[in-house]
Amino acid sequence: MENIDYLINQLKKADLFQKIENSTVSQLEKYETLYSLRSDGFGQRILNYIYTLRIAKKLNKKTILMWDTSKNTGSSIVHGSKDDDVEIYQNISIIKFNSDLERFFKFGKGGAIKKNIFYYGKIYYFENENLRDVITEISNLYKNLKLHEDIQKIVNNMQVYDYGIHSRSGDISMTEINLGPRNFRWHTRDRLQLERSYPNEAYIKIINDLKPTNIFVSSSSEKFINDVSVLDNVRTLEKDFDQHKFIGTKKFVLDIHALSKCKKLICTFSSAATLMAIFLRINSTNITPINYLKIEGIYEELSNVIKDQYIKLNSPKLMVKRIILVYLGRFYRFFILRYIKLLFKKDLVIK
Q1: In angstroms, rounded to a whole number, what is the distance separating the alpha carbons of residues 256 and 189?
Q2: Which fold is adopted by the domain 149-299?
Q3: What is the pLDDT of residues 7-47, one digit of tens each?
Q4: Rounded distance between C-alpha atoms, residue 185 and residue 119, angstroms
Q5: What does 130-193 look like in DSSP terms, one character per residue?
Q6: Residues 6 or more apart from 161 whose CB is under 8 A from it?
Q7: Domain boundaries, the chain
Q8: Of 2, 5, 85, 188, which is the most exposed, with the fewest CB atoms less than 10 Å away?
Q9: d(Cα 137, Cα 306) in Å, to the nearest integer?
């Protein structure tokens, strides 16, 4: 129970729980089917489906995963997802649609559920439900997803590792995703990700501290993987299955199952990849790098300083002041100094 309680605490910190009000339950009772819909990465789509499936089973409803095949979603742009990625799992009811051409439902303000469509991506639960039971049920549902036969064969041949480490998208460089190609969402400017991402230096320190213990490392950052894979105690998919070429969603799913086989897992609790791995091993030890290094207070204080400075310096008042000062400075430097003062300078006479 200790490991599940730690997981619940981390999920609360990441604001990943969503209570379903009784009024919403009454609304859901009217429908035969509940739909799960996300337009971001593969992992978030599958997790939201599992969260929706748990609620549907409680209400004795069917569940269908709506799979957006648009090439203009975060899943396609950032993660390079393909239309048939969802077929990695063999027992999910799916309806594919293209949001560029079809509108499944109209977004509105507020709420995690629109009619019978779940799209918030959080762990839904009913009032008075025990969160330990919620997590256990989610874990069992996820374990019951049937992998494609080719992938299952590789999973069956994976070894057990002492430690697992996952660095999400190169972690602290989350700005690259928020400002990526065709991402026009203005609200992403404020995503500092300080509670969700950790510096790669923290992971590297842990890897060095754990020598010679074998550590399985995964990340969507190729640079990070390349930097650490040269270390003798680091294992990766590429090292353990050098006869295979793993790319895209297949690699993502295999990384999840390799992480799930580690005796201890060090990771963020807000990444879809690590949450999926944790749900396969909820009774095992899972811990954040900050807790492992015992620098919670230092990291929290530093995070608060960064957020405080960011908020102050980006307030409308200071932003306007900074813009005025920048252009006044340019005017002074390029016009006053260069041209006006020139009028009052004496010519230098050279004999």
Answers
A1: 29
A2: Rossmann fold (3.40.50)
A3: 999 999 888 999 999 989 999 999 999 999 988 788 899 99
A4: 18
A5: -HHHHHHHHHHHHHTSPBPHHHHHHHHTPPP-SEEEEEGGGTT-THHHHT-TT---GGGGG---
A6: 214, 215, 216, 235, 258, 261, 262, 263
A7: 2-143, 149-299, 315-343
A8: 2
A9: 38
